[in-house]
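Quick entry between incubations.
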Amino acid sequence: MTFYQTIAEGLFFAFILLVILGSILTIRTKILMHTVLGLAVAFLGTAGIYFYLGSMFLTLMQILIYVGAICIVLVFGIMVGYTPTEVADKTLKDWRNKFLAISSAVTAFLLLMACVLKTDWVPALGEMRDFSITHLGEEFLYTFCLAFELISIVLLVAIVGSIILARGGREDEYETIEHLRSAKGNYPNDDAQ
Amino acid sequence: METISILPPELIRMLIAVIIIISFLFLNAIMMGYLERKIAGHVQRRPGPMEVGFHGILQMVVDGVKLLGKELLIPFNVDRTLFRVAPLLSFTPVILPLLVIPFSEKLQARDLSLGLIFIVSMGSVNVMALLVAGWGSNNKYSMFGAMRAVAQSIAFEIPILLSMLAVVLMCNTFSLKEIVGAQQKIWFVVLQPVAFLIYVIAGVAETNRAPFDLPEAESELTAGFHTEYSGMGFSLFFIGEYTNMFIVASVATVLFLGGWHGPNLPYGEYLGVVWFFLKVYFLLFLMIMIRWTYPRVRFDQLLNFAWKYLVPFSFVNILITAVLVKL
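Done. Structure below.
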């Protein structure tokens, strides 16, 4: 093994370690901000794996879309809804949420595994070097149209998720206002009508 | 037969490039800091720093030594890990883009075929650092600064990308070297004046400089996201900001001002760097003058300006470019 290969192998395992550590941080921490940062670390590790596999374009897209867009949208949602000292661990104690989380994770894992096992893996045809606009556009709109459309759905899900996050943080205040409204019936805004 | 070479030449080359670039970053920050203070002084009819060295030329060195010696204060009740990591996080992504910028025909650490996308993706990581700093400080000013930084960078990223794309459409490549190569005869600033204007405006906003320095507006937010930082923590943000300015200016030079092209010099493939730096520092001078000339905008004005004017204009520009390229 040459020196370069040793470095590459080492980097590959370092990236995998990054993904695993990031995922553990995402799940185990009680502070929401750390969750998203762990997610960002895991995304960066995934980008590293793409890089190891020789796809510069996917690497950069992974960083641009997942770290640069999705994580930032989520962080924004957290910043709107929570204060830095707030700990948000009560949500996962909920039995229903726990069930939903586990079942969706297991389903996603099984689906991915089924795809991985079923696919007849063909070695890539050397390194693709043609990054001209014409070529990229054709690939996106003909060959990989589905993937291209799915990216927008991923972004939509992230935006909806961050809105839910931002609303969740202020839930207590909403409840108190509603409570006031129903209990006394003379909430300041009602008088104006 | 396998030969075990201890250090392959390519690796050594990259290491040297990284060392040169990092030392250049610090030099650039010192020069820019001095220039900024001197120009600000003259704009406001006062001499600026005068005491240390000839016309205060060593002022920034002295300041740097002071900042190095200062205690790193960590306020009570902050998120310690995030607080310490944030300056480093803001410093790393500004080093990497300089590796792909072609300073001259043969002075480039690495010619990526996706160089432009590389620079853009590193810029998006940079925003994350501001967020971490603002959140980690556990301080309302910092938090507001960070939130403003995100809203602003999301808004201005779109026009900046679209104005870049107009040039990419004309060259049909993302490689910065080839983009400069395509400007041998005519600079793209002539063919794409609207894109250039949009890029410069959005670029000033992306680097959080006045009149768009809302994330660190002194009169409202003390110092925004880096309120709580002292000593080298603050210095890293400071150097990061000036390096970011340098990157924006050099990308503008590469995309619109013809990069290393200029009147012929001996050893042109290396000394083109002279023209490159002249153009970059002219743009930086322009950015400093803008900062000390115009008042700060309000936040709603800033976002309205981005979404209602810059984005539609850049869309129209890219549409016209696409039609003209296709014809």
